[in-house]
Amino acid sequence: MYARRFWVDTETTGLDTKRHFAFQISYLIEEDNVILHRRTLEARPERYDLYEFSKDAEDVHGYSRDKIISLQPEAAAFAVLLDDLKQYGGKRLTLAGYNISFDIRFLKALFDRNKAATGQYSVFYKYFDYMYFDILQFVQAYRIAGIINLQHIDLESICRYFGINTKDAHNSMTDILNTKSVFDKMAGMIDRQSGFEFEIRL
């Protein structure tokens, strides 16, 4: 079974893909629990003046508007992302992350803004599978089953539950590495509770 995953986290200027954009994207390309490649890209659209910079978002990630607009143009970062996808994609990658639908929306917006570079309106699903794996839903299932007892299941809370260091949280590379660590901890719990080797296939 082809099981290569694209673990991804983004930092954005806000919550709405029409008014905001992802300026930091970090990803791990992993197969059979081996990290094949990792990268962080920081960039801003050519027409960043068309977008808003939420103060609430800045308070979370710590990047000021001036710092964000000083980043490299988005087209250059997008070219690097495409090169990585061509090199490591092979078949379509399974997207994985924490509350991954949020990151998918901003990734799709990135592809749409840079459609001229691909020669097509969108090649998003050329590289990514339609199915994705959301660790947040995995955590929620554990909570419903009574395996995990937590009032809040945001990434920082579940990391603290598992003793995972949350220093530098809300940096996208830190967050996606921590997301992968949460998944590994939960997969280990399945092994221990089942009493036999249990191989997770996505």
Keywords:
globular; Nucleotidyltransferase, domain 5; 202 residues; 44% helix; disordered C terminus
CATH superfamily: Ribonuclease H-like superfamily/Ribonuclease H
Q: What is the CATH topology descriptor?
A: Nucleotidyltransferase, domain 5
Largest beta sheet: strand ordering: 4-3-2-1-5-6
Beta-strand segment tally: 6
Number of helices: 9
Q: Class by helix and strand content?
A: alpha/beta
Principal-axis shape equals globular
The CATH architecture: 2-Layer Sandwich
What does this protein structure show overall?
- By secondary structure, the chain is of the alpha/beta class.
- It has one domain: Ribonuclease H-like superfamily/Ribonuclease H (Nucleotidyltransferase, domain 5).
- Helix content is 44%, strand content 22%.
- A six-stranded mixed beta sheet has the order 4-3-2-1-5-6, sandwiched between helices.
- The C terminus is likely disordered.
